[in-house]
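Aim 2, interim progress: modelling of the flavin-adenine dinucleotide-bound target.
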Amino acid sequence: MRWTMEDSPEQAAFRQEARAWLREVLQPGWTEAIDNGDEEGFGLVRAQAERGGWNFMSWMGTVGESGYGAPLWPKEYGGLSGETWMQQLVREELVRYRLPTFGPNILGVGLAGPTIIAHGTEAQKERYLRHILTGQELWCQLFSEPGSGSDLASLSTRAVRDGDEWVINGQKVWTSIAQISKFGLLLTRTDPAVPKHEGLTYFILEMSAPGVEVRPLRQMTGSAEFNEVYLTDVRVPDDRRVGDVGEGWRCARTTLANERDTIAGVSLDPVSLLGGIRKDPWLAFLDGVADRAEPVTRQRLGQLYIENETKQVTVFRANSARMRGEQPGPEGSVNKVVNAELNQRRTNLAVTLAGMAGIAWAPGDQEAELRAQAFLRARANTIEGGTSEVLRNQVAERVLGLPRDEDPAKAEPWNRALRS
Ligand SMILES: Cc1cc2nc3c(=O)[nH]c(=O)nc-3n(C[C@H](O)[C@H](O)[C@H](O)COP(=O)(O)OP(=O)(O)OC[C@H]3O[C@@H](n4cnc5c(N)ncnc54)[C@H](O)[C@@H]3O)c2cc1C
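Predicted structure of the complex, ligand included:
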C-alpha cells in the first residue's frame, strides 16, 4: 500500500515546478523512463548520463545552485526561504526520480547548515552555507569521544582561550568522513568547573589545521567510513566559534535534533541513501523470493512486510506533519529505532535465505557482495545517531511520560563528577 496525502492546489503547483526543473536538468529521458515504469530504459539513460560526467558530486552542484537542495534555508544563502511542506515535497520528488535526498554532503546539509543558520554569525552564514549546499566543502561531526557517546555532554576535549584564538587538545572518535572533509562541527569543554552541560563551547574546525590528525578505522565491511581524530594544540580563531562561550550544548542540541531528522528521513539502505539505480531494493528482494519460498520463510517475509508497512504509517505521520507546516515530534525517535532494527532483520533474512551463497560467492558477484555488505553495515544502524536503548529512553520520557532516566552527575561540576 502507498501512503500518500493529496496535495493542496499550492502544493500541486510547487510539485509541478520541481518536476519541470528536474526534467530540464536531468539527462533527456530520465524522468520519462521513471514515469513510464521503464526500468531498462532508465538504466540506459542513467549509464549515458554517467558517461557524460554525471555523478553524485556533480548532482550536488546542480541541486545546490537551484534552491531545491534546501528549501527551508533562507534565499540569500541558497535556499528557497520555504516552508516545511516544500522540503517534504522536494524530497518526495528526488526519491521518485532516484536521486539522493542529501547526497555525499549529508552532514553538511543535514547538520552543519541548520546549526549555522540557527546559531552562527552573519559572516559565518555568508562564508559556509552556499559551499555546503553545492558540495564544494564537505563537513563532518566531531562530537563523540572514547569516553563520551550517549552521555555526550560529559566530553573531555579541552579548548583554552589564548587572545583571539582557542587552543584545542583531545580526541574524537567515530568521525564519519573526516578524511575527506574540509570542516568539522567540534564540541569542546571550555569550563571544567561547572556542570557538564554548562561548560561546553561549539566551534567550526578546519580539518587541515596543524595539529589535526585523522586516522581511519577499518570496519568489518572492509571500508573505512569513520575515523579517530587527534587534536594536539590546534589553534582555532575565535571567529570560528558558533554561539556564545558556554552555549555549546544549546547549539549541539540543534545539531542532534537535525541529525535524528536527517537519519530518520532517509532509508538506511545504502543504495537508496544515495539514490538507487534499481527500484526499491526491498521490494525487488521480495519479488525475487516470495513465490518460491517455503511456508516458514513466507511467514517471515510476511512478518517483515507487515513491519515495513507499520513503519510506513509512522513515516507518513511525520511527513504529513511536515506537509501541514509542522515539525515532526517524537516520532523521529520512534522512526529511527524502528528503521534501524527493521533494516537489521531484513538484511539478516536476506543472508539466511541465500544459504551458502550468503557467506561465500564467486569473485565479481555484485549482488552477493551488496547483500553481505548491507548485512554487515546494518550492525551500525542501532548505534549511529543515538543508540536504540537511548532513543527508547527518550520515547519513554517524552511520549509515554515515564520518569526521567536518573543522572546523578548532571548537577555536579564536571571536574568533580564521576564519568566513564
Ligand atoms: C557508523 C557510525 C558512524 C558514526 N558517526 C559519527 C560521527 O560522524 N560523529 C560523531 O560524533 N559520532 C559518530 N558516531 C558515534 C555515535 O553517535 C555513538 O556511537 C553513539 O552515540 C553511542 O555512543 P558510544 O559508542 O560511546 O556508546 P556508549 O554511550 O558507551 O553506550 C554503550 C552501550 O550502553 C548503552 N547505554 C548508554 N547509556 C544508556 C542509558 N542511559 N540507558 C540505557 N542504555 C544506555 C548504549 O545503548 C550502548 O548499548 C557514529 C557511530 C557509528 C556506529
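The two ends are 47 Å apart (CA to CA). Strands lie at 139-142, 158-162, 165-176, 183-189, 200-206, 212-217, 226-237, 241-242.
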